[in-house]
Amino acid sequence: MTEIPVHYVMLRAFSYTTESNEKVKKALKLFLPPETKVEFQELEGNFGNKIILFRSKIEKSREIRDLIHKIKTSLTENQIKELERQIEKRTDEDCNLFLRFNKQDAYKEKLSLTNSGNSINIRFKIAAYPAKKQKAINTGKQLFQKDWS
User: Fold this and answer.
1) CA–CA gap between residue 26 and residue 80 (Å, rounded)
2) Which residue ranges does UniProt annotate as crossing the membrane (predicted)?
3) H helices then E strands: how many in the chain?
């Protein structure tokens, strides 16, 4: 089994006043192993409105592999190719790869990439040596091309 080049994955989603907290939590859990704990934090919006931040972290290699497999098998071939084309824009100088999935679709157990802010945010901490953006971009592209099972 090849070692997965990801240190950990952080996932988060915001639940706004007009949304059901349970539905947002359910949408986030679609990306998580069944027994993974979801933490929450109450925040206050610009107008004093209550916002709940749900977040979780995946650190085990097997669980990271399962998440990548779920993404690869749920997106169409064209969506995977588009994702690979956008890897450079989605990767920062600290070797983080950011993906956003539509929160409404995730609640319906469907994965679809989005650029909208109303989303499930997933951050992959890429294991790039040396820790340079270009190395992380190359590694990020491999995540969705290679079979990690």
Assistant:
1) 24
2) none
3) 5, 5
